[in-house]
Amino acid sequence: MKVIAGGKEVSLVGNPPKIGQEMPHFKLTDAQGNRVKTRDFGGQLTLFSVIPDINTRVCSIQTKYFNQAMNQYATVRFVTVSTNTIAEQAAWCAAEGAENMEMMSDKEESFGYEMGLLIPQTGNLARSIYICDANKQIVYAQIVENQSDEPNYQAALAKLTELQAK
């Protein structure tokens, strides 16, 4: 799959999973430096907000948007994933007052490779949103074609509203 990053078409490392597939096995690092694996996301509806770099304008906007929206979805786990270090993520959260969103680092690129979202030329993840159900099945997927664009927040939140109503 290809996306546009920095005005150039670039290839992702693989083929991202599709709706109906199970989340692949990956490892992330949480804000406390703990290893978090795919199995740790079972049992709860989870929205993954995937961003290239927390220290850029659009990534900051995307993260703030979901940080504010999550108050309306008490039963949903919201996770932001980037290849930034946990120190960079913590500094951004402190500067922006973002206290609700779970930030997870993919500095080791496990998530990026397993999800097929890593852009090898930049070492960043492709801007995307994934929602998985309590069984870790993907129920929503959105990969933003032009990485400088914001995702379709309304579509993702509409899917969460639909899923919570079930």
Automatic annotation (TrEMBL):
<dbReference type="InterPro" id="IPR050455">
    <property type="entry name" value="Tpx_Peroxidase_subfamily"/>
</dbReference>
<keyword id="KW-0560">Oxidoreductase</keyword>
<dbReference type="InterPro" id="IPR000866">
    <property type="entry name" value="AhpC/TSA"/>
</dbReference>
<dbReference type="InterPro" id="IPR036249">
    <property type="entry name" value="Thioredoxin-like_sf"/>
</dbReference>
<protein>
    <submittedName>
        <fullName>Thiol peroxidase</fullName>
    </submittedName>
</protein>
<dbReference type="InterPro" id="IPR013766">
    <property type="entry name" value="Thioredoxin_domain"/>
</dbReference>
<keyword id="KW-1015">Disulfide bond</keyword>
<keyword id="KW-0676">Redox-active center</keyword>
<dbReference type="GO" id="GO:0008379">
    <property type="term" value="F:thioredoxin peroxidase activity"/>
</dbReference>
<keyword id="KW-0575">Peroxidase</keyword>
<dbReference type="InterPro" id="IPR002065">
    <property type="entry name" value="TPX"/>
</dbReference>
<dbReference type="Pfam" id="PF00578">
    <property type="entry name" value="AhpC-TSA"/>
</dbReference>
<keyword id="KW-0049">Antioxidant</keyword>
<feature type="domain" description="Thioredoxin">
    <location>
        <begin position="17"/>
        <end position="165"/>
    </location>
</feature>
